[in-house]
């Protein structure tokens, strides 16, 4: 049954068709993470890219590969020297990614807070959904205008998509759903108003294009793809609320 499910999901990625039509609710991703090999900076996994993206259409804290880094205080653009880098390659329209987020959110917050990891988020329009466009434009506004709410907003839109997917209601894939998630995350009313305008204008389209390019060059074949540095993490091996922590501690004990 699992093999048949994966075959269906691969076909869904190839055709980019949604279950609910124009809304873009595709069953996508793969149950297992992509095999990760050694890499140079700027490829899949590994070190944090240090240079920032520049020019119109890029939030201030976005790196040159399109990634967003969170450090111990959950502030975007911060990091802990010497910490391991947890890279998550995802799409805001991927329900597997939303499930991963729900399972590991508290654990990741703890690992960030004690300086064990830096969180490196790599988003894209892997599933070619309008939801991803809207969320990333909204995130751009939050990063520039209310960065302290960025981590909470990331989680809120993931939770909102889980609800949409569970209801199979494509009509809920709207800018209003995104702004509601922003309000739930504590984003101020004036910033929420800016979010609505940015979605309409595609203000951060350049960031989205950069993320798509990064995914293409890295040959991402499924979301979520998760790397601890250059190491492959099999999603099935870390599929508990403390799975990432257990893996880190197990590797340390083996050393």
TrEMBL record:
This is Disulfide bond formation protein DsbA. Keywords: Membrane, Transmembrane, Transmembrane helix. The chain crosses the membrane at residues 20-38. The keyword Zinc does not apply. It comes from Actinomyces ruminis. It holds the Pfam family Thioredoxin_4. Residues 84-234 form the Thioredoxin-like fold domain.
